[in-house]
Automatic annotation (TrEMBL):
It is a multi-pass membrane protein. Residues 294-308 have a biased composition (Polar residues). This is TMM8A factor. Residues 457-496 form the EGF-like domain. The gene is Tmem8a. Keywords: Cell membrane, Disulfide bond, EGF-like domain, Membrane, Transmembrane, Transmembrane helix. It comes from Chordeiles acutipennis (Lesser nighthawk).
Length: 734
């Protein structure tokens, strides 16, 4: 045998603390056919700074689709099927780097996915630039060992093979479409030393998180056989045979694979078209059933029943309609309602094998028409499975195929509705099998028929993540998948877990606190207007307006009001906040008016540019603050040297205005930078609003001495007033 090794690598990704699926870093690989050994090389590393501590990295594996994970222990939506992912933990303690190997023998060919993430996020809101987070990096590489000349078993032909003592034998057989059963036989087992034969046979490949390999052990000269019901259609099945005998003895065997075909029927489609024609031309006398629906006579029903016995399934034509990215609707050509019988299952094909369908949620909904069921205790049993359909629902009602555990559904007259949600369905052909089951035996169901309305579709996020979530489309290279980002304390895969959800009253309170706290700018605006700082008052009014409506639009719950685009509101709020600090400090410096207004305009333009480059950068606020403080200190020193005394010279100005204003500003900065978390944001950020606005009212300097106070009574009333004439009269003496 000729083995070929191949190596696949992807670039490293920076890991994040987990709060929703978007924090997990996804790696997508494709395992080629005839792979007998798969080895993952997992490399994790961290930075060397003092902020880097011991960390545990969780790595999840899954075949066919991204892994469904639940690190936070939240609830999944009702009717969702969840099977725990296979995962390992990698610990970074004293070592800066950790290398881990994961081996998978005889892996399934196709798409494999790896997702890695850090533990749950602490929820602290960090200002960008105030602290340097430790970088944790993760990289996954894949080594495969592939057999280039794997022997092929032909159906019905016995093939002699020799098993080497130190190397297992790998063969494969192609399973055709509509194969209902596969029979594998191992016979004529003889060792080179003419001793008792002992071999182990493994059928199928490993798939994670669940693997359904079938293993048989053959000893002696007795023939071994294994039957597989519903093997995967149109796929290669790997068979591995290894010797359990002496280390130096080879084994000769004969292998035979045979299939039992399933003859599909399409009479149901013809009958539906006939019913459609009857409904258009009018029913014949005596052929109208309950609710005016056309039914078949007793003779026609018996002929159809005998005709169905010759088929093992009844196909229903389904059209796949692509709507958008990870969005597909399945439309039945004969209408949403399909007939279901007891003789053979009704089968629908749901095509999800494009390679881009596994990043959403497959939703299957069944609705039983109660008037169509003649038997009160009859039940329609359904099964959703991948790779091959379930063809024996009437015998065991076991929703499983040879290598896949399906998802069962059932509807009856007592429970007429059923829904199934498959999260991240694996890339494959999916099948929906339906069959009518009677509690007293199938004899009473032979002439019965049930009408079931079926809705099947693929959606990026189930129910669009609900009212408390946002469906986000994520991308890893060319692969797209979707995830829900929850808000207002809601959690879960589809934001349906209300364990920590905020009540409507709490949401209204948060909105009121964050918006009404901006009214603390009114005293600052009044002080600025009273002291003739009209430009500064205009900036404070702008900041108060946009901060109020930005936080009204930024709320996670139902108490939301957006007067314009969210991004515009956020930009205007950030711009107004930084410019307010800028003009306040420059106003305190008491420079000449022409210079002050030049700095106002120039600084505002530079701040607008920097916010466009990086809106959340700490230097967007710190840079203008430090520069304005430098201008203010230089101006104060200049005034102090010129007057030969401390500036400002009044101790009352320091005690009652400057020191309280500076104290409020420092407390506000401390709250903003070090105390905000996701849980306390609505009141800590409200405190930030009130403290900053109050500090502005204290820090604004008094008006110029030549400026007289506003004479509101004289300006707002109409009456005569004595005007002072300051002009000097010049007299000429002749």
């Amino acid at each position: 045998s000729l083995y070929v090794s191949e190596y696949f690598s992807q670039s490293a990704q920076k890991l994040s603390f987990y709060s929703w699926y978007g924090n997990a870093k996804l790696f997508h690989f494709h395992v080629p056919e005839d792979t007998v050994l798969l080895r993952w090389l997992l490399q994790a590393s961290r930075g060397k700074g003092p902020e880097c501590t011991s960390m545990e990295i969780t790595v999840h594996f899954r075949y066919g689709a991204p892994p469904v994970i639940n690190p936070l222990g939240t609830r999944f939506p009702v009717n969702a099927t969840v099977r725990p992912s296979y995962n390992i933990s990698i610990t970074l303690s004293s070592a800066v780097q950790n290398t881990t190997f994961v081996n998978v023998t005889t892996p399934a060919a196709g798409d494999w996915f790896i997702a890695a993430h850090l533990p749950e996020a602490a929820g602290r809101i960090e200002v960008k630039g105030f602290s340097t987070p430790c970088p944790y990096m993760f990289q996954a590489d894949m080594f495969v060992l592939r057999l280039t000349d794997m022997p092929v078993l032909e159906p019905g032909v016995a093939v002699p093979q020799t098993v080497s003592p130190a190397k297992p034998l790998h063969v494969k057989v192609f399973i055709p479409k509509h194969a209902a059963r596969m029979q594998f036989q191992l016979r004529s087992c003889v060792t080179s030393e003419q001793k008792a034969c002992a071999v182990r046979v493994v059928l199928g490949s490993i798939t994670l998180p669940q693997s359904f390999q079938r293993i048989i052990t053959c000893t002696g000269s007795v023939n071994c056989s294994l039957a597989l019901d519903s093997p995967p259609w149109e796929k290669w099945l790997q068979i591995m045979v290894e010797s359990l005998g002496a280390a130096n003895a080879s084994v000769s065997v004969e292998m035979l694979a045979s299939f039992t075909a399933c003859r599909p029927g399409s009479t149901s489609a013809f009958l539906n078209f006939s019913s459609l024609n009857q409904s258009q031309t009018g029913p014949r006398p005596g052929s109208t059933g309950a609710a005016g629906s056309p039914t078949l006579s007793t003779g026609e029903a018996s002929r159809n029943t005998s005709h169905q016995r010759s088929f093992c399934l009844q196909n229903q034509p389904v059209v796949r309609e692509d709507l958008d990215v990870v969005s597909v609707r399945y439309r039945l050509l004969n209408g949403h309602s399909v007939p279901v019988h007891s003789i053979s299952p009704t089968l629908l094909l749901l095509n999800l094998n494009t390679g881009m369908d596994s990043g959403g949620s497959l939703v299957v909904s069944l609705l039983l028409n109660k008037t169509s069921v003649n038997l009160a205790n009859a039940t329609v049993v359904a099964c959703v499975s991948a790779a091959s359909p379930v063809l024996s629902l009437n015998a065991t009602q076991n929703c499983s195929t040879a290598f896949f555990q399906g998802y069962p559904l059932s509807v009856s007259t007592s429970s007429a509705e059923a829904m199934l949600i498959v999260l991240y369905p694996q890339t494959d052909d999916w099948f929906l099998s339906l069959q009518l089951i009677c509690p007293k035996g199938q004899g009473e169901c032979n002439a019965a028929e049930a009408k079931v309305t079926i809705f099947a579709y693929l959606t990026p996020c189930f129910n669009d993540c609900g009212p408390y979530g946002q469906c986000s489309l994520l991308r890893r290279h060319g692969y797209l998948y979707a995830g829900c980002s929850c808000k207002a304390g809601w959690g879960g895969w589809s934001c349906t877990d209300d364990t920590k959800a905020q009540s409507v009253g709490a949401q209204n309170l948060a909105t009121l606190l964050l918006t009404l706290s901006n009214l603390m700018f009114l005293p600052a605006i009044a002080v600025a207007v009273y002291r003739y700082y009209l430009v500064e008052a205009s900036v404070y009014t702008y900041t108060m307006f946009f901060s109020t409506f930005y936080h009204a639009c930024d709320q996670p719950g139902v108490a939301v009001m957006c007067i314009m685009d969210y991004d515009t509101l956020q930009y205007c709020d950030f711009l107004g906040s930084v410019v307010s600090i800028w003009v306040t400090i420059l106003c305190m410096s008491r420079v000449k008016k022409i210079l002050k207004y030049v700095l106002f305009v120039l600084g505002t333009l530079l701040i607008a540019m920097s916010l466009q480059l990086d809106r959340r950068g700490v230097w967007n606020m710190m840079g203008p603050c430090l520069f304005a403080l430098a201008v203010m200190i230089a101006a104060w020193v200049y005034h102090g040297v010129k007057r030969r005394r401390c500036y400002p010279s009044s101790w009352k100005r320091w005690v009652f205005y400057l020191l309280p204003g500076i104290t409020l500003a420092f407390i506000a900065i401390s709250v903003y930078a070090f105390m905000e978390t996701n849980e306390n944001y609505y009141y800590t950020h409200s405190i930030w609003h009130m403290l900053v606005a109050s500090s502005v009212a204290f820090l604004l300097p008094p008006r110029d001495k030549h400026k007289k106070p506003w004479a509101w009574s004289q300006k707002l009333t109409c009456r005569y007033q004595i005007c002072q004439n300051d002009r000097e009269e010049l007299y000429a003496v002749t």
